Every structure is written in C-alpha cells, then in structure tokens.
Amino acid sequence: MKWTRPWRAARLPDGLTALTAVAALLLLVGDSGPAVMAQPARPAPSAAPVAHRAPRPAIVPRSVWLDRVTLRRQPPPRYDDRVVAVFVHHTASPNDYDCADTPRIIRAVYAGQTGARHWDDIGYNFLVDRCGTIYEGRAGGADRAVTGAHTLGFNHRSTGIAALGTFTAGTRVPAAMTDAIAALAAWKLGPSGTDPRARVRLTSTSGLSRYREGAPATVPAVAGHNTAYATTCPGAALTATLPAIRAKAARLQGRTRPATP
Description:
The chain is of the alpha/beta class and 261 residues long. 21% of the residues lie in helices and 15% in strands. The protein has six helices and ten strands; from the N terminus they run αββββαβββαβββααα. α3 (175-189) packs across α6.
C-alpha cells in the first residue's frame, strides 16, 4: 500500500468555535500546493431529502484506541464544506486477528504513520474491522467533513475508510465489513445529497495522483484508493465488492430508482 502525505489535524480547544478557529488558520490546498485561506468549517445547509439521509451507524470513538502514551501533539483539524466522495482502503495488515484486538491494531497503524512517517495523526477518517465495527480515525469529529490524509490529491470533500486487513485477489472479504462500509458511506454522503452509485466531480490537488494538479476528475462517489492514485490498494478482492457496497449504501439512503448516469 502506498502511504499518502498527511494533513495536520487535532481537536479544537474547549470554548473555541470551529468557524472562529478555522478563519484564523491557513490551509494547504492539496498535499503540497500553495497556502490559501481555509474553507469554512461549518458545512453548507443540505438540500438532500430526508429519505436520502441514512442513519448514523455505531462508531467507536478514537478515545477507545488512542491512549495517552501513544498520543502525539497535533494542530487543529481542518474541514471541508461537505463530503461528496468516499475512498476505500485496506491497511495491508494481517487478516487473522481477533476483533477484540482491533484497538491495538489501530494504535499500531497510528504509531507507524505518526512515528516512522512523521504524520501528525492517522490519515484515515474511519477504520472498519472484520467484525464490522467502525472506529473513528482522524481527529475532528466523526459527524463533520474532516479533511483527511488518505488519498493523495483528493483529500478534500472526501472521507477515507480503511478496512483492517489485506484484501488481494482470492482473499475473502467479510460481509460484516462490507456492510459496515456501506452504512458509513451512506451516512457520510447523505447530507450532500450524493447518491453512492453516482459519479462525482473533484479537483486534483497534486500532480502525484493520477491527475495533474488542478485537473478535474470524475470518479465514483464510492471509489477505491487506486481510482485516484497509482496503487493496488484496496486490493483486488475488496475492489470487487465496491459495486455491492454502492448498491447497499443507496438502499440505506432510501433510493429505489436507478442511479442517474
């Protein structure tokens, strides 16, 4: 798996509103682009019908896996105005783990990214284990459009979901895992009114992605990491499940009609 360069992120101090904090920060456009004023942290009002807003799945907070010994200092999180795309990853770690050990495994992923790679936080917004349990990853609030560090060039207006394990060709992908990814995708895309089966338009912020910097890219609303970056992630087996994940996410949003081309 190809690691991407991280965005810096952290929780806001008590008593400080997200809008005030972000107005005082500079946001790097892309993973290595010029600095500009940060986008407003407060998302725009959603026009999505209530029927297309999926329920929030159960999410284990990061406080469960991140202890004081492992935690590193980090700056405030950065936000986008909305989420219109989901990128699915795998962590390229062993598959034969006990789900009770998931917090320890995520802690190891965090330590690797913030230690050896000198990232300020874990890059993924969420992680899902083989039992279908969803864990909050990157700091900033699970219900907000936190700018992640999961897909080089396409961290804006997207959420990164990592499946714990290695899902190369021939590997069994647990149904509980794909069901959880679908539920999470449906919930995160609901406020922007995005159909999980649709294709969405993003703008590349890095020439190191599959698209030159500043170029428009039309990608599936639920896409694999390899759609935007030259990598085998999330593995052939998990990639093969994406059509079913999109269909299930659409049903969870209450969509019964075929997707608009």
